[in-house]
Design a protein that fits this description.
The complex is a heterodimer. In chain A, 33% of the residues lie in helices and 22% in strands. Chain A has an eight-stranded mixed β-sheet, with helices on both faces. A four-stranded antiparallel β-sheet of chain A has the order 2-1-4-5, with helices on one face. The longest helix of chain A has 18 residues. By secondary structure, chain B is of the alpha/beta class. Helices cover 30% and strands 21% of the residues of chain B. Chain B contains eleven helices and twelve strands. Chain B has an eight-stranded mixed β-sheet, with helices on both faces. In chain B, strands 2-1-4-5 form a four-stranded antiparallel β-sheet, covered by helices on one side. Classes of the chains: A alpha/beta, B alpha/beta.
């Protein structure tokens, strides 16, 4: 695997509160991962787990509190993002690592035709193209995402949610990206439309050779499209590994909880007692304000040991992946939820 | 207990009215859990609002009736409606973020509802508020909390507690779990189910996520373009969906178990309801379309004890199609 982007000990804290109740929200703490070329990596977790913050750190919306992101632009050694000082470097990076947003209804300007965003991106990032070439390129990317050049002249309100999200991907594609940061690109869409977008992501990887960081809370869709899975909980990585391996044998209790909660319509319905027993887990992810050391899942974890309350588990290799769990790392088989 | 028959809702806008709900009939028995599923724009929320009589212009009920405990809600006077609402029929809205007042503590909002519908004494208000909050598994101290101090799951539970203030016969829920993650979703659904068994109310549950209701609802109504596409027992629809749209919906979401299979979803998008459609409204997206589908609007047929709106099940048309195709197989066995 050729490395494309490497995040090391990425941390982002936010200061919150006024003068009396000041605190530090640990949105992302010590997160390290790799994204390879032509790889789709799914970043999964519930709301508030810090997955969108990771995407924004990679998109340079704000700088990390500590830690580094190294980007390999294919021309030799990687360069940390903090070294991108000139406008030229910054533009180059944002062209190669664009973002697709969650809400297709608010991420397109309603007063411009949908071609506007693509043409603007082309003008900014590929100034060598003439106006005619820009139009041809816009038609090409619209074609790739399955909209057809006929859609270029439409206004956002004339398009369905799925079509608008395809416009989002067309905009990202126009700048010849190497890594697309897709922040919950399908969660606002109807289930019947979602698959089409997931198939589009697979197609972009296969035909355009881009990598995708697919941020989602839907494990089933992560399995459908991604190669590797990163599960985040309360700002830290709980578990990572090849997606099939993680789903077949989740090692972290939180991953097990997450998987057990996914409804499976094809299975016969369990009785209410079974459901109630399974759903007895009513804890909620913590708001990580000024945390003390210890595992952040410990208050909800049925297999926690003493160590979990005092020592923060590190993400260590385990099987084909990595997990941050004292119990799993001690070699015991973790069976917290099934 | 609730009998909706021939309900039709038009949005009277400008020159071409949009028929968002078209001749929908359904019935809900005491203590039943009925799921209504469909894509956005299929009229499911409009249907709910029409049942609860919460429609505001330009939406107007143009035909049909909603009979709740023997009374027609559509023609009921406001005074009578006020007496029934919340007492006997309550609504849980989609977004608890917006449905709760952000500048009032939760308890004050409970008290408002209780006072508006009769319970006057301060003691009784406090007692009942604490009681329903405990029912949904939230500590009564949170009566003093503001909505922003509660998590998304707790807010949604508080909304359900509010709907249960008077132990209603029917609770209408409009995607109450859509803002929650899977873990919170499961625990909320199970809680609704447990409360239902305990208190005996019926639930009409609207969602676009078919897998969500698979283990919870007794009966399912699949809506498409304002019409009922298929209605029947939940298990039957999941095991053997009859309508091509239901089949498409079921095959649209990937599974975390079993083999990984490429999926197609349902190509295209729902039709524009302001245009008059000849024939089946699903036909432009239908993988098993017959020539007749473009010209003949299908009626809701009774098949194996469930209703389905598809020409494949119309004995006359299916026979013709079969003869034309020269196939010996039954059309309904055709795979997608």
């Amino acid at each position: 695997m050729t490395e494309l982007l490497r995040a090391e000990h990425l941390t982002r804290h936010f200061k919150i509160g006024g003068t009396l109740a000041r605190g530090t929200l640990h949105a992302v703490d010590d997160v390290s991962f790799l994204i390879g070329e032509r790889e789709i990596v799914a970043l999964a977790g519930e709301s508030g787990s810090g997955k969108s913050t990771v995407a924004r750190l990679l998109a340079r919306v704000y700088p990390p509190t500590s830690g580094t992101v190294t980007y390999f632009d294919g021309t030799g050694a990687g360069k940390p993002l903090s070294a991108l000082r000139s406008r030229r470097d910054a533009l180059r990076y944002s062209a190669q690592v664009p973002m697709v947003f969650q809400d297709p209804f608010s991420s397109l300007n309603p007063v411009f035709r949908v071609s506007h965003g693509v043409l603007r991106a082309l003008k900014l990032h590929r100034p060598e193209l003439s106006a005619a070439e820009r139009r041809a390129e816009a038609a090409r990317v619209f074609d790739v995402v399955g909209l057809g050049a006929g859609m270029l002249g439409r206004f956002p309100h004339e398009l369905s949610g799925g079509q608008r999200q395809r416009v989002g991907f067309a905009q990202a594609l126009a700048t010849r990206p190497r890594l697309i940061l897709a922040d919950e690109p399908v969660s606002m869409l109807d289930t019947s439309i979602r698959i089409g977008l997931l198939n589009l992501m697979a197609k972009l990887r296969a035909e355009e050779g881009v990598s995708i960081l697919y941020i989602t809370h839907d494990i089933a869709s992560a399995r459908y499209v991604a190669d590797r899975l990163i599960v985040m909980y309360a700002g830290r990585i709980a578990e990572t590994g090849p997606v099939e391996d993680v789903l077949a044998a989740p090692r972290h209790p939180y991953t097990q909880l997450l998987l057990s909660a996914v409804p499976d319509p094809k299975a016969p319905p369990p009785g209410l007692e079974a459901l109630a027993a399974a759903a007895g887990e009513r804890g909620e992810p913590p708001k990580v304000i000024d945390p003390r050391p210890g595992c952040r899942f410990q208050p909800r974890c049925p297999v926690a040991i003493d160590q979990c309350a005092t020592v923060t588990p590190e993400l260590l290799p385990l099987g084909t992946g990595e997990a941050a769990c004292h119990v799993a790392q001690s070699g015991a088989e973790v069976k917290a939820f099934s | 207990m609730l009998e909706v028959s021939g309900l039709t809702v038009d949005y009277l806008t400008g020159t071409n009215p949009v028929r968002a709900v078209d001749d929908v009939s359904l019935s809900v028995g005491r203590g039943e859990f009925v799921g209504i599923v469909g894509e956005s724009g299929c009229g499911k929320s409009t249907l709910l609002f029409a049942i609860a009589r919460l429609l505001s212009p330009p939406a107007v009920v143009t035909a049909g009736s909603v009979t709740f405990r023997g009374e027609n809600l559509v023609t009921m006077t406001d005074r009578r409606l006020n007496a029934i609402r919340w007492q006997n029929l309550s609504v849980v809205m989609q977004s608890a973020m917006n449905a709760l007042n952000p500048v009032m503590p939760v308890g004050a909002q409970f008290a408002d509802a209780l006072r508006a519908h009769g319970t006057i004494s301060r003691k009784a208000v406090a007692a009942r508020s604490a009681e329903v909050l405990r029912l949904v598994g939230i500590d009564a101290v949170h009566l003093g909390s503001y909505p922003h101090q509660l998590s998304g799951g707790m807010r949604q539970r508080a909304m359900i507690a509010m709907a249960l203030l008077f132990t209603p016969d029917l609770v209408i829920m409009d995607e109450p779990t859509s803002a929650l993650d899977v873990v919170a979703q499961r625990s909320l659904m199970t809680q609704i189910k447990e409360l239902q068994r305990e208190l005996g109310f019926a639930v009409v549950f609207v969602t676009h996520d078919m897998s969500l209701v698979s283990h919870y609802s007794d009966r399912l109504v699949v809506m498409y373009a304002g019409q009922v596409a298929e209605a029947g027992a939940t298990r039957r629809i999941f095991d053997r969906p009859l309508h091509p749209y239901s089949r498409g919906l079921l095959e649209a979401f990937p599974s975390i178990r079993g083999d990984k299979v490429p999926l197609q979803g349902i190509p295209g998008s729902p039709p524009d309801l302001s245009v008059i459609h000849n024939g089946c409204r699903f036909s432009p997206r239908c993988p098993v379309k017959l020539p007749a589908c473009e010209t003949t609007p299908p009626a809701l047929l009774d098949r194996e004890g469930t209703s389905v709106r598809c020409l494949l099940y119309d004995p006359g048309i299916a026979a013709v199609a079969q003869a034309e195709a020269g196939q010996a197989t039954q059309p309904r066995r055709r795979r997608l």
